Fold these 4 entries.
Entry 1:
Amino acid sequence: MIKPNLPQRWPKPPTISYYAVAVLSVAMAIIAAELITRLLHAEAIASSMLCAVIFAAWFGGFGPALLAIALALLAFHYYLVPPINSFTWKHDLFAVGISEVPRLILFSITSLFVAFMISAQRKATETLGRSRDDLQAAIEDQKRIEAVLRRSEAYLAEAQHLSHTSSWAWDVRRREWAYRSAEVYHLFGFDPEKGAVPLQAFRNRILPEDSDGDVLELIGTHVDVTEQYAAKETLEKAFDEIKKSEDRLRLVIDTIPALVWRTRPDGAAEFFNQPCLGYTGLSLDQALEFGWTSAVHPDDVASLLETWRAIWMSGRRGETEARLRRFDGEYRWFLFRNQPLRDEVGNIAKWYGSATDIEDRKLTEVALRESEQRFRDFAETASDWFWEAGPDHRVTRISEHVSDIGFVPSGLAGLSRWDIATDIESEPEKWRMHRAMIDAHQPFRDFVYTVNGTGSPVYVRTSGKPVFDAKGNFLGYRGTVRKAQAELAHVTRVTTLGEMTASIAHEVNQPLAAVVNAAAACRRWLDGGTPNLDEARSALDWIVNEGNRASEVIRRVRALANKTGIEKVSLDVNDVVREAIALVQREFISYRVSLRMELAPALPMILGDRVQLQQVIINLVMNGIEAMQSVMDRPRELVVGSHQDETHRVRVTVTDSGVGISAENADRLFNAFFTTKSNGMGMGLSICRSIIEAHGGRMSTADNVGPGARFQFTLPLHQEVTL
């Protein structure tokens, strides 16, 4: 028998490759779980390992799936060993808590069930393909046998016509013709095209003298019908095989876990498998032609039919997604696929299709998009800026917020951080150690350096971690960067407190001395022959008051020294000024400077951070005191005032009678690292202005009547900030 030209299948790969796929799928799942845990802070180990088992079961069968389950269990177990949710190196591999055992058991059962179902589906799909090939082969054999029979009959008919010989068969039991060749009709003068001719009509054509008399002999012919009989048996066997193949195919189609259908070339449906009808709740008559569209979600019908028409017109396989109604009324997402079947000349004879439930995949995609959007929102609203660098440590991507320090993100692409840093020459050892660390592909944290994108130096702090691919190849770094002004403000406060040590000690010593004196007086009043309880009570009240005074001084010092975040509250600016002046009172005595307070009463409340505003006032006051050290020909007087300006904002002024500000230095006073002091850092006024601007205000110098300098800052009212 000549084999029909069936579609050639891909050669079956070796069995070991299926087990290699299982190992590779678990490895990829481990990497995916680690990335999702670190980047999205989500526990994805179970879903990742289950995906690996599904992948191994589909491409390799149940055996590789069992290997994938075993590897996934080991990975799951390792993932749960403290520290959990990580694949970092762990020393105690048997430290999983008893509470995690049910998760491992549940994962094992689920994985075995899923592996079994996927393997069964894979085997059913392969069986369906083989049955389809067998059916096509049987149909081809039947067509060839019928062609041989028709050709033999044509040869026999032509031979009888040329030799004027006819053949017939008579059924003795039924006394009727079983078969008459066409030449029988021609010999007796009948037209075979006009239908059957009764026996009597043939007898009427026999001469009377030949119809009467006795039968003397019988003359007949023998015809070899072996080939016809063998062909008949072969045809009957072929029909039996076709029937069995159809039954097997029907069983496979109704067993596979997918919805299967067949349509005519114009797309009208003519067959649905039982799972399809059972899922939708439609009968076969209801689903035929285009009745199946009643089970499609109304919002998806138009787009689904439009996609199908485009596929039918193209003559190529295609797929689309739509929601399908279950028999209980619930809609679920399905993936619809269509495949054409062509005849011998290449024309499309049928369309075969299937639909697979992808509702769970859709929900996973939605959750993934929501997770990505949350991460994007965090990245866009965070105070840190995100950056990425390639293997050569040059920037490939950076947040738009970097424009806050004067850089355009696109302008930083292709540059390394040492290309824009301004402290490489002043701190070479710091940069040498940093370069050595990143060349060794080690993570780093809180690396501080200076840049100059706005015309004045700005401190930035960056952290980063190396990125590797699945093969361990180094891809670059990812990390964050932010301005380090808050840390510098804290350093400035602590430095200022160090310079005010004598003043602070004096402020604390005064109430402590008063407490000692009051305690001694109280003891004398109590030791007398008749204790004077009223005087003793007054002395104790004095001790309490002076103790509270010392405690308040210490509280203010601690507030300035603590490294805390900004906490804006409603404040009276005059109270803030008085508290700040109290901390530097000793400095006025040490430098022989007189203080004059010109605070306007009943000023509106402002919204601000008490500690930061005190830092600004202390810095301005200390600058004014130090500016008058060299003054000998006039009184050293510092005036601190407050009032509302013409815009109804609160203004605070600090005026000294020192040497004043030269014209060449006036434009650079607020630049970072600019100072006129021999031992100054040059950060005080820069940080003060940053603090005032962060409060929505403005800081500047003003013309002073007489010698010295005048600094001032304005702050918006509490109502303005709220609006």
Entry 2:
Amino acid sequence: MKRRNIMAVLLAAVMTAGLGLTGCGSGGGAPAGNTGGDAAQEGTTAAGGGGAGAAVSSPGDEYYMISFLSGIDYWKTCYRGMEDAASLLGVTAKYTGQTDSDVAGQVAVLEQVIAMKPKGITITCVNSTAFQDTIDSAIEQGISVVCFDSDSPTSARSSYLSTGNEDAGKAAAEYLVPLCGNKGKIAVLYTVGQENTESRLKGFQAWCEANAPGVELVLVNDAGDTTTATDNMAAALQANPDMAGVFCADGTAGGAGPVAVEESGLEEIRVLAFDVDKTVLDKVKDGSIDGTVAQGQYNMGYWSMMMLYAEANGVAAADLPGYVDTGVTIVTKDTVDQYYVQDSKGGQFTPDQFKGEASDEYYMVSFRSGIDYWKTCFRGMENASGFLGVTAKYTGQTDSDVAGQVAVLEQVIAMKPKGITITCVNSTAFQDTIDSAIEQGISVVCFDSDSPTSQRSTYLSTGNEDAGKAAAEYLVPLCGNKGKIAVLYTVGQENTESRLKGFQAWCEANAPEVELVLVNDAGDTTTATDNMAAALQANPAIAGGVLPGGAARGGRTVGGWGGGGGRN
């Protein structure tokens, strides 16, 4: 992120994410469809005129970060993000933790913090089940709680921010495999049985299967121990002297893998590590390895603080995102200097830097601009704009015409707003226009539907595979964990295919007696209704159904099913 744009990017991102949530204001003017007139005429919320209104903050408002293994560099970066957010908001961030991985010790630290009655707490939990009662107790006392990096999923915490490990594995493969010529043997050094590294392996494998089927993966267990990892990697290299690359999928592997490669004497092996330990960064800097995968530690701290503050100032916990993937970045020799842990503290901003002027305009741009789905999105943006003291505006293309939405975006750019958030009807058609806006100093983020090849700063959307798992976790037990369940979805459409994948995965792991009946809605309400009717006639024993797309939800009632249409 370029320094000149940091505040505009943070403002735009907050309006779309951290405080750009529903449920804390009147919503103001609802978006209307674009009738071909001036794009600025759609919907507007000026500062104080329909948003949530300015929140109240004071340096006496304290928010805590709690970790285990307190003092390691990893948490320092997380806390610097929290400090920066706190300084922008005009509140106080504090850090404490348990020096080791003792569960009871960290629970005691949490209890001590709760006794001090802070406004909010963000905590990384050394154990996924041990903190439920203590976290729930804090919430009952009016203290907001979010988790980061390591979750307490059964607690009532508002949100969980962490690395999306499967996507991290895909990002690693996308970088490393082409360096190896998209073929040959690539070792994956990881902790067998550990959920995060297993997920990274899964993502790495998936990318290779889809993009480089000539790659043969050699799986090596690091056993969570540096010495064992080094020995096992050395043995794998000895057995496979034609190894083309090594992906070190966790911190232990990141320290051990490069050592084993160096000691093997084998040349031209491409190496990608994980995490930003100083030893690893030094190897990236001197060219010993090709790069490392940096987790979004700063994001974890920064957005934890934003969510805690939002909830403390009236945003309902239910309106915060349940999970936030804080992303990864591939660190190379060109960028490595940015990733050394800084000695300077965070918190160098002031609240004035976070507030804008009513003349600062930020736009939301959509396709199918009249539907209720976008009205809810824009209401979230309005609420955030009211807090920030800026003006939110909405416009869009009435249908799904790509050229039409590009033209709307060009009209908005011509008005020189501070920032734009856009949902793109096509994933490739907006790259040049978005990049042009950024070159003109306009911050751009995407939401709901992405322009992944553009230079947009971030992308906010539903995690569709996780959504499918959540749907299965709710529906399948209602059906007795067995029998036939129909999935009505748009075949070939990425979002609904991902929802189906998540639904299937949950059933395979938790309800193997379920038989899924797949029904194509073809993206059309009438076709969806007819196809579902046919499926019900052919399968009168169907116990339930999931409708993961807009077309699937619309239309006349079939067998007791029905509902209003919406955005997919």
Entry 3:
Amino acid sequence: MRPAAIAFATAGFLASIAAAALVATFAVATLEDTTERNSKSALVASGQNWAQIETDGTRVLLTGTAPDDRKRIQAFDAISGVVSTTRIRNLMEVEESIPAIAPHFALEILRSGKDVSLIGITPSEAEGDIIRNAIAGIEGVSLIDMKETTTWAAPEGWDVALQFGSEIMMRVERAKISIMSGEVIVTAVVKSDAEKQLLQQELQSLKPEGVVLSIDITAPRPIFAPYTLTFIMRETDTTLMCYALTPEGAERIVNAAKRLGAAEILACEIGIGAPTDNWSEVAVAGMDAVANMGGGSFEMQDSGVTLTAPLGFDAQTFNAIVQSLQEALPEAYSLQAVLPEAEIVADDDTRPHFHAQLRDDGSVILEGVTIDEISKRTLLTYAEAKFGHDAVNDISKIADFAPHGWTSRQLVALEVLAMLTKGDINVTEETVTVTGTGETEGLYDTILSKLEIGFGADARFTIEVEEIIPEPVIADQPDAKECEAEISALLDENQILFAPSSAVIESASVRTINKIVTILNRCNQASFEIGGHTDSQGREEMNLNLSQHRADAVLDSLLARNMLLGDITAVGYGESQPIADNETEEGRQDNRRIAFKLLEETTDGQN
């Protein structure tokens, strides 16, 4: 073959090799791009965006750090659906796992009578459910269990705190008990200061060693209506019967009475219902006015006050004393001045006696003798406060032979008569006889206790009373929605007022609460919610807490009346449910409110 032909053939062969190499290179590049694109799409579709893809010819390099081993397997499975597993090189790593941390264990027990709720996170219950076992001992209990039980072992101090918390739950009918490891916090409501002190001592004595106990127990003050004070000064003795808003106010009144000659005085009863916060200052001013006359009486019934002079007192001097007292009284009080001119009527029977009768129609007759005109008027005023202004007929006579302390005995007798629905009480120097019927549970013991305190344990008592507790008449109860509408209309006219930025109910709202109690008592089979609402001034969290405290304060005031009510809960909504524009003062005032809502029942009987 000629050299030229050989050269031509060689050149053609080399060109073919070059062309094949070029085609192969292009094919590999196309395969790599297609594989990488499909692999990335598969990772995105499976949610494994953390994984990375690199292609090297037909091989696929899978790299990246997986959050956990499950994610690593999912990424490999996603790629294997696109590329043969023989072509995948798995270079993925897994993040170092962090040991699991036990949660903060805490349990809240909320008890209101027979209703118990459990909320919180608790460890495993190696010794059984301590709380449920304790709750089983409450007759007729209604349990709402929202606690979450974990598999974690109980930390040190948990079981002993839980056992202690369950014991507290069994002893306190209205309480929130917060339980943590080695710590128990108790927030409770009781009926009186005496019960509060007794419960505090009992819980401290039961506290296990090593458990930290925090106690916040409140005793809502009772509501008195009418709110009264009676101060009588005579030559023979000085008498005081009173209500006071605070212990400090009671001490101020009692100290003034002692300063003016009172020897033995029972402490004023503490409760709300006074028309103003300066009730005790008004009382002291009136008592000083009596002292300036050298005798007489001063009576307070809500915002009405009466100053009565001794018989035969100089009219001009009396007018000056009345004028001075009038100037000292706040605007909320109205003063009535009495200068008695009644003639003393001699009684043929020189043995002092007193008879009070309560009839079926609610009318009362007062008979017998009183010491003087002041005592006679005091007795009538007190009876009208107990039984109604138009219900009392006083036909008693004034006699100068009544013994020391006779008026105090008569006032105690009226207190006892008020415990009856029908009956009589007769009082002589040596004996007291009570007959009739009443609807107070433990009527006999209650009357006996009152008489022993007022007359002394050595007096002779004859008590013949019948205790009649009426069965509730469910059929006669009004529709609960009517009660809801009545309360709403009442609050539209007279909203419950509080001191600024506090949950202290102003005394002007006591009458409104009294009316609400009467309405709720008629619908005692229904369940209501007391909603507390605020305006948008201030921080949201602060407003939420304030609204809850105010709703709780209203609930405590209702319960303090000791009347038969239905299930009532208190909820604070803060500023979340405005009914008016918070940009105006009028709107903000409308948004600061207490609302009552009827809770409808579901088919399973739960509210």
Entry 4:
Amino acid sequence: MRIRPAIFSPDNQPLRVKSAILGLAIAFGSLGFSNVYANSFDDPFGVNTHLPTHPGREAAQLADFYTIPAPKTVQKQQIDTRHEYSLAELTALALSNNPQTHSAWASLRAQAASVGISEAAWLPKLTLNASAQQSQSTTSTGFSIPTQRIFAPNLSLSWLLYDFGQREAGIAAAKAGLVAARFANDQTLQTVLANVATAYYQSLADRVLVDVDKQSVKTAQKALDAAQARYRSGQATISDLYQAKAALAQAQGTLATAEQTRLQNEGALASAVGLPVDTQLRLAPLQTRIDPNLDANVKSLLQQAIAQNPNLQNAQAQVAQARATLDQTERAGMPSISLGANQGLRFQQSLGRTQTNSIGLTLSVPLFTGFDQHYQSAQARAKLAEAEANRDTTYQSTELAVWQGYYAFRGAVVAVPSARVQVENASEALKAVQAQYKVGYATIQDLLTAQSTLATAEVTLAQNALNAYTALAKLGAAIGQLGTPMFSEHSLLDPTTAAVSEGATSSDHQPDLAPTSHLYVQKEQSQP
């Protein structure tokens, strides 16, 4: 018998070397396979393939970008570029065209649907189930059981009969939410109207300010012409000429800035209406009649705001919703009684039809829910306290808005007569200084100061008119009125409306701000 030498014997050195090399190869191969295996299961679906390899790099790819459609707004070709739009017309466009009103309306409909969901809890639920099955079994000895085909339709009914008021509380919470959504919708409308009114008044004021700056450029040009004439005749120094040129450059720069501001605010007006920002809207010239005396005092306006401000009413409705939700949560731990019925058929091959029927009542008593009910009730109570605190905060902010709007309006109106006097006197002073400068009785500093004083007075007068109408719009929004807040029969929210109510066309307490170069009409001109 031949004895084979052992592999690891001292006499078999070559085999030992080969075995060691083969073992190392198997070990490294196993390690590589395990790494590949681990890497493949680290991200088996390759979700990280298109992500940045390092932080701080852009992640969006070209294929990720969407083609975003423009809002469904009134097309620019439907805007009459020759028509001068009033505030009422722009408001009508905004109410039907601004996306915020569409969003509020959709939210209102969604909340109304939630009421229907809660009401559905009163009705029974019917469910139809049908199953079809084919089975065949084969034993280890090769014996095959004949194929069995089964079809089993089943109709089941479940009806919650009594739950100790859980459904009523849920419906009450949903209805309170619907009331809150109604007031939220009205608040959105008021916000849209206030934004349109503010942008509208600002655009009107911008156009007046552009006219003021144009007049300032003309006046500065006249001053430069006068300085050049005196310089050529040897009656003025070169410094007068340089100062006049600097004043003209400053006036031109102010005009250029005013033009850009006008374009910026016109885009804001178009956006508030719901139109593309580059829509060109023509507005009627600024003609304002401001009544400095409101028929209603601030206390009556505060009472109106507390009674009808939609934002405050929305906060109160949210309190009612939170209270109903708490009631529903606390009743969730009560027993419930349900009716269940079932009717089924079973059709099985070679066995014919089998019919099953059942009906019964089920009493469900939650004994222990792992303290889930306890913490849900605690959360609902905290939500109620939060809603009450939010209501109180809204109450105070509403009062403050009415208070500030009222006195902001009165402050702007009271300042109008003073601003008119400033414009009148500054205009006359400029005429006098211009005449004096031509004959050498005034310096170039006197002339430039008079020009600056007139421009400042004109800007102040326009700004007071803007502040008055803006404050009036904010006051109406704070009170909760949609549209023109008719606090007195003389208050016109639309300053482009030339006509006023009968009996208020020429009273002494109504200052006129006509769109002239000096922004005022002297009262003496309207008197015989």
